[in-house]
Design a protein that fits this description.
CATH superfamily of the largest domain: Periplasmic binding protein-like II
Radius of gyration: 23 Å
CATH class of the largest domain: Alpha Beta
Largest sheet: 6 strands, mixed
Structural class: alpha/beta
Oligomer: single chain
Strand content: 5-15%
Shape: globular
CATH architecture of the largest domain: 3-Layer(aba) Sandwich
Length: 447
């Protein structure tokens, strides 16, 4: 059965509205032959102003400043006549229900299942051919990930920026306890041993060696999916999940790690950045840059640095899972040619350099560009950026419509293991049972 068949409540209605809005073209390849987008000279295209609309769905383009820095500024040199309106304040479902399907969707690879199920994707292979886009310039895992969604070789999105896993660390805490700094290429067992040396109480402050975060921080880099190959049955009791939860168990067994008052079901990055009582913080480089920048501007920065995201002993050299932002052209776009040119412009070296310097990591596999990541922000000066890229992104786990709910049950399993001493097998079995129940309920709603 097609894994895209089921979605959230009301998806059937949304798909119908989307199909009505775009006629017979939904989900179909871009037009070819005489109807293909014209890759004529840039000069001829830029004679008339063109306005497009875009919706952000998990790509961090939340306001006009993001739109300007991430898309408009990088493409303006090539296409100054293109303007883009960011539709905000409404959910994607509501926008489609109102018949206002945008020209472009900025999203993350983890939302492709949902967007494909809603009929919002155009095959970009003809665009790649017509505009002579060299996909080999991109981070290889981005195209490998996209290829999993094209059953017949379709390409449903164009990557424009990467997110890279990192491990930030507080040098002052390491110095305080006389522990050597972490190194690039460490595995989780080595990191846990370091955490044991740094989880200590001093001057009434409980320091934590590491904040491992939500379960997916460690399950996704091992490429563990929420569901099995069918996409319709939970797969949370596998040996892989048991192994990862055993690592988490080892972390929380360190004396001093567990605080019953702590909410272990949320992002506790403030323990690292503001409280400054966490020694090591596995995180995303883009998310870290947006959080460090205000601290630096307010004079509240501190002595921190970066190393590569830890690997698993049996998967050396692989860091956090591939995560990238991409643009999708909707089948109902009234000006596909202009939309394609936005994608074209963002693939240029010039655009990638501008975006990369502004704080969105290039999607190109070009070390010369990466070394200047966020230089315009002046927050990574003197930091070990090169070390971050010394590991490769792990393959992204297979995704499904039920991942969000499955991860929420995994969060509950982690909390139960931490605060109630529930054994790993029981915690994971309960999470799997809850996910399977949810899947069945969603299936019934679609009948």
């Amino acid at each position: 059965m097609n894994k895209y068949r089921y979605a959230k409540v009301g998806l059937t209605v949304m798909v119908a509205l989307s199909m009505a809005a775009c006629g017979k073209s939904c989900g179909q390849p871009a037009p070819s032959g005489a109807n293909a987008p014209a890759a004529d000279s840039v000069d001829s295209f830029t004679k008339e102003p063109v306005k497009l609309t875009i919706v952000n769905h998990g790509a961090g383009i939340n306001h006009e400043t993001d739109l300007e820095n991430v898309i408009l500024k990088p493409i303006r040199t090539m296409y100054p006549n293109i303007s883009i309106e960011l539709i905000k304040g409404k959910s994607l479902n509501d926008i489609i229900a109102a018949g206002d399907t945008p020209d472009l969707i900025a999203t993350s690879n983890f939302y492709l299942d949902l967007l494909l199920g809603m009929g919002l994707a155009t095959d970009l292979n003809e665009f790649v051919k017509t505009f002579k886009i060299d996909l080999t310039r991109l981070e290889p895992e981005t195209i490998a990930t996209l290829s999993r969604y094209g059953k017949k070789g379709e390409l449903y999105g164009m990557p424009y920026s990467m997110n890279y896993g990192i491990m930030a660390y507080n040098k002052d805490i390491f110095d305080k306890f006389g522990v050597a700094y972490p190194k690039d290429g460490m595995n989780w067992d080595e990191v846990i041993e370091l955490a044991k040396k740094l989880t200590r109480k001093s001057d009434s402050t409980q320091y934590l060696g590491i904040d491992p975060g939500l379960p997916q921080v460690m399950t996704r880099p091992y490429s563990l999916p929420v569901t099995d190959a069918s996409g319709e049955k939970a797969a949370l009791t596998t040996d892989g999940y048991k192994m990862v939860f055993s690592k988490l168990r080892a972390i929380y067994d360190i004396p001093g790690m567990i605080d019953p008052k702590t909410n272990y079901l949320k992002d506790n990055i403030d323990f690292f950045l503001k409280d400054q009582r966490v020694a090591m913080e596995p995180y995303w480089i883009s998310a870290l840059s947006t959080r460090v920048l205000p601290l630096a501007q307010q004079g509240q920065n501190f002595n921190w640095d970066l190393v590569s995201f830890p690997s698993y002993p049996d998967k050396p050299g692989l860091g956090r899972e591939v995560d990238f932002h991409l643009l999708m052209v909707t089948p109902s776009s009234k000006n596909k040619d202009a939309a394609y040119r936005v994608l074209q412009a963002l693939q240029s070296t010039e655009a990638q350099v501008v975006m990369n310097k502004g704080g969105r990591l290039t999607a190109l596999k070009d070390p010369a560009i990466r070394k200047d990541f966020a230089v315009d922000l002046n927050i990574f000066e003197g930091k070990n950026l090169a070390g971050v890229f010394s590991v490769k992104p792990a393959p992204a786990p297979r995704s499904s419509m039920y991942d969000s709910k499955g991860y929420s049950y995994l969060n509950e399993a982690l909390k139960s293991m931490i605060l109630s001493s529930t054994d790993i097998n029981t915690a994971l079995r309960e999470a799997e049972e809850k996910t399977n129940k949810y899947i069945e309920e969603e299936k019934q709603k679609q009948k």
